[in-house]
Structure formats: C-alpha cells, structure tokens
Design brief:
With 134 residues, this protein is an alpha+beta fold. The chain is 21% helix and 28% strand. Strands 3-6-1-7 form a 4-stranded antiparallel sheet, covered by helices on one side. Strands 2-5-4 form a 3-stranded antiparallel sheet.
C-alpha cells in the first residue's frame, strides 16, 4: 500500500475539500482515464484495491498510471474511549481528491477493455467517477 516515507508532521487536521481540482485535470500519460466528479478522501487501501482490479482485468496488458498519492495521516481513537485526552494515533493514510482530478490512466489496450477495467476500479472507490478518453 502507498504511504509517505517521511512527513513534516505526524498528525494533520481533518480539513474540508473545497472547489475543483487545479492540477491533473487532463490525460497526460494514457489514452483512457478515471476522473473524479465528487470530492472525497480516498484511502491507500482503496487505491490499492482499485489498482488490483484494473491490473487483473487487463491481465497485465497495457500500462497503468496512478495519479493520486495518500499523503494525509488520518487519526482515530480506540473503541470505547471517553471524550478528551487528546487526539488519537495515526491509523491510515488518505488522499484528498477534488472534482475534476484524473485518478488512474491506462494505455496500450482497447477502449472497451479499458472502460471495463476502470468501471471495476470505480466500484472500489468512495466517490463518483467518469470515464474519459483523449
């Protein structure tokens, strides 16, 4: 699973995801892509599940690019712990995805196979997506 090697701070604020994506809004590597249409936090486990779904559907043909990286630590307090006593420990890594961001790109396969693979990947993600072509 994806995670940063090191970070400046151990814990981060939750924050809110406002506005449209400014970067990675067009296909730069492949001919087919999966574009986010809603804002959401995507965990490293969800990214890995989507990547596996794509590579298995393509039967390791073509090339896949992952255009998102989980760089936000998400903390959780243990179950049945009272309020207060500080912030919980970092549990997993997530990526804040804004609408308009290209998350995955594929090249080297037919369009119907790429569409099928990216539809399977979209089922693993917590946000609404759209299939885009060059």
């Amino acid at each position: 699973m994806l995670a940063p090697k090191r970070t400046k701070f151990r814990k981060a604020f939750k924050g809110r995801i406002h506005g449209m994506s400014k970067s990675a809004t067009s296909l730069d590597f492949g001919n087919y892509g999966l574009k986010a249409t809603t804002a959401e936090r995507v965990t490293s486990r969800q990214i890995e599940a989507a990547r596996r779904a794509i590579t298995r559907r393509l039967k390791r043909a073509g090339k896949v690019w992952i255009r998102i990286f989980p760089d936000v630590p998400v903390s959780q307090k243990p179950a049945e712990v009272r309020m207060g006593k500080g912030k919980g420990s970092p549990e997993y890594w997530a990526c804040r995805v804004k609408p308009g961001r290209i998350m995955f790109e594929i090249d080297g396969v037919e369009e119907d196979l790429a569409r099928d693979a990216l539809t399977l990947a979209a089922a693993k993600l917590p946000l609404n997506t759209r299939f885009v072509t060059r």
